Amino acid sequence: MNNTTSFEILDWATAGNDLLKRASTELGNVPSEKIRDLAKQIPAAVLAEDETIKLVFAGQYSAGKSTILKALTGRADIATGAGITTQEAHVYEWDGVCVIDTPGVHTELRPDHDEISYQAISSADLLVFVVTNELFDSHLAKHFRKLAIEKDKAHEMMLVVNKMRRCATGNSVGMQDIIREDLRKVLAPFSPEDMRICFIDAESFIDSQHENDSETAAMLRKKSGIEVFTKELNTFVRESGMAGRYTTALYSLEQVLQEALSVESNGDNDVDALEELLLQRRRALHETRDRIPRTVEKEIQNVGTQIRQDGRKVADLINGNADQKEVNNELQKAQDRVQLHADNCGKSIERAIEQQVGELEETVRNILNSELAKELVPRLNHRIQEANISPEAMGRINKAADISQKLGKFLIENSFKAGGSGALGGMFKLSQYSGTNAHVAVKAVGQFFGKTFKPWEAVKWAKLTANAGRVLAVVGTVLTIYLQFKEEADAAQLEVDLRESRASIRGGFNDAAHAIEMHFDKATGTYIADTFDPEIESVDKQLAELREMQQTRSDLFRNMGELLEETRQLIKVLHANTAKP
User: Fold this and answer.
1) In sequence order, which residues have a C-beta less than 8 Å from that of residue 503 and are 6 or more positions away?
2) Which of 262, 298, 385, 467 is the one with CA 20 to 30 A from 412?
3) pLDDT band, very low/low/confident/very high, at 118 (cuts 50, 70, 90)
4) Which domains does the chain have, with CATH numbers?
C-alpha cells in the first residue's frame, strides 16, 4: 500500500497466513512421518472461510465509496468514476479479510440496489457508511437511522464524509465543525459526539499518487484526511476486538511447532520423556484455553438477544394510544431485567469456566498417573542422586556440566520432589490456584466478571429517554381530542416524535446489550490471558530449558524454532491491539 498508515487488519491477516503457509511447507516436506502428520494439523488460514471478517462500505450513491476503497487498499482493480459505478456488491478478498463495496442506497433510480446493500450489511463485522459533503437527504437519513438503531449497527459503524474539497474552505477543521453541527439533527437520537466520524477527500489522495512534485503530493495527502481515517479505522478494529479472532489459528500453530520440536530432539531419553509429559500438559492447557471462549459465547449472545427483545417490546408500546404510566412501568421493569440478565450471564460464565477447569484438572491428574510418568519418576530420582545435586550445590554447577547435572538442577528449580508418584506434582500444578480444586479456582473469576458491573452506566440513558418522556406527556387518553384541534402538520410532527421515541428506547436497550456483550467478551479474554497464558508460558520455559540440554541441533530444528518465535511475536502484537475491559 502507498498510504503512510497501513490498515492493520490486512497486515495481521497477511502476516498470519504467511506464517501458516511457511510452517506447513517446512513441516510437510521432511522425512519424519510424525512431523508430516503434525503439519496436517496446521490451519489453512488465520480465519476459516465462514469466519472471514467482513468490512462493508455502504451509503450514498456516488459518494466515492470505491475511491475510498482504492485509497485504503492500494488496489488498482477497483472501478471508480462518475454515476452509479457499483451495480452490485463487489467483494475483494484478502487474507482473512473480505472488503465489500455495495451500491448506493435510496438512489430512486435503482431501488433494487437497496436490497443488495442490505444483504451485504446484515453480515458486516464493520460498516463504513459514506456520504458526501452535501450530507443526508430525508431518504438517506431514514436509512442511516434504520441501520444504526433498528438493525443495531451503531456500534459497528463509522460515518465518513467524503469529497470535502468541494467545501468552501476544503477539508479544514472549521468546515468539519460546521458539518458536525449540521449532522446533529439527522443523527438523532445519536449525536455527532456519539458517532465515529471522519472527514476525507479520497480523490485528493489518489491525485497525490500521480503528482510528481513531492511538496504538492504531501499537501494533497494531508488534505485528503486518509491517514487520519486509516488510524481511526485501526482504532475501530481494535475496540471491536477483531485482533483476538486471528490468534486462534496462531495458537494452534504454536502447539504444532512445540510438538514437532520434541520429535526432532536427539538427546537423553529421560529428557525426551519429561518433554513429552510437559507437552501433554501444554496440550491440555491449550485446549481448555481454546474451549472457554467458545463455551461462553452462546451465553453472551443469548443475553444480548433477550435485552434487545425487551427494548423492542417497550418501544412498541409508544403509539397514539399509549398510556404514560403503563409505558413507564414497563420501561422500569425492562431496565431491571437488563441488570438481572447481566448478573445471570456472569453466573453462567462462572459455572461454564468451573466445568472447564475441573476437566483440565482431571486431564492433568491422568497425565501424572500415566505409565510414562510412573516409569519416569524413579529414573529422575536416580539422576538427581547420581549427580549429587542439592539446592545448596546448584550454584556450583557451571555451563560445562553434563546433562545429568543440568537435568538435576532443572528438576530442583521446577519443584520436582523426589520420592513417590507425586514427584511431578510440583511441576504440573495449576499455580494460579495453588493446586486446589476447581471450586476455589472459580473464586478468581469474580474479579474479571465483576459483581458490580452496571450495564446502564455505559449507556447515555437519560438523554435517550428525554424525548420519549416529552412525547408521552401529551399522549394517552387525550391524544385523540388533541389531534382533532391541531393542524395536520402538528399531527405529523407528533408522529415523527413518537417514531423517534421508539427509536430512542430501542437504541438504549441496544446500547445496553452491546455494553454487556463487550464487557463479558473482553472479561473472558482478560481472564484467559491472566490465568492460562502464564501457565502455558511456564511450560514453554521448561521446554526451552530441556531442549537446551540436547546435544545436537538439525537445520529443521532451528527453522522450527524460528517459526515458533515468529508465531509468538505475532500473537503478542495481536494481544497488544486487543482492547482491555
Assistant:
1) 145, 149, 150, 189, 315
2) 262
3) low
4) 8-242 (3.40.50.300), 267-551 (no CATH)
